[in-house]
Amino acid sequence: MSIRHLLNSRNFLHFLVWWILFSCFSGLISSAVVTLDSIEIFKTHELIIKPTVYFVCKGENKTFLPDVTKKGVVYSFKGEESWQPLTELESKKCKRCGFYEEDTFKSDDVFDEWEFCASDFKAPEGKYFLFEEKELNVTFSCPECKSLPADASNTAPEKHDDKNKMHVAVVILISVLISIVTIIALVAAYKYWQKRRRQQDQARFLKLFEEGDDIEDELGLGTVI
Predict the structure, then answer these.
(1) How far is CA 150 from CA 99, 118, 225, in A?
(2) What is the structure's pLDDT at 204?
(3) What is the CA 35 to chain-centroid distance, rounded?
(4) Which position among 93, 143, 155, 195 has the lowest Cβ density within 10 Å, counted as fewest Cβ atoms?
(5) Is 60 exceeded by the pLDDT of residue 225?
């Protein structure tokens, strides 16, 4: 067996193993990017200086909106701004998010706070409209949110959630076991193929020697006088 053929076989085996693992676990990670389409604030909390408006979800960094400085103005965005996207939403978990205005002397003022979920976005365009009276009017965009596998609903019964979690755990366990068995079978088949290939090479090599001896006998070269 040539060295190049052996390396190609090993590379193929590695690729196959990684492909199996990726197919089993790629569906377990589901998230979608959320961008800001437009925003209008109905009031500002700072009386003298221009307001500093920002968006933030619990446990994440603040996203400042430098263009939003005046009330009663609709600010529209393309989703390509340097501070975009606002956040990412997972298929089975909501986030506590909000719009705020920095305050110079006390804690920051709140325009609105809410549980932000992927299920908030509706087909076909994947838009979510947030309106808080006397505070702000916002449009979010998340085309991928409507295609996530499951919505994150806080109103589902706990027993139903437990069943879903158990079902997911069983699926994961079965997937892992199938992957392990498949990998072991592939490795065993690869080893057996190597063994058979060596046996065939040895048999071919011995056959060449036997044919050479027969030719020598026919030509009378096998006996030296």
Answers:
(1) 26, 9, 91
(2) 82
(3) 18
(4) 155
(5) no
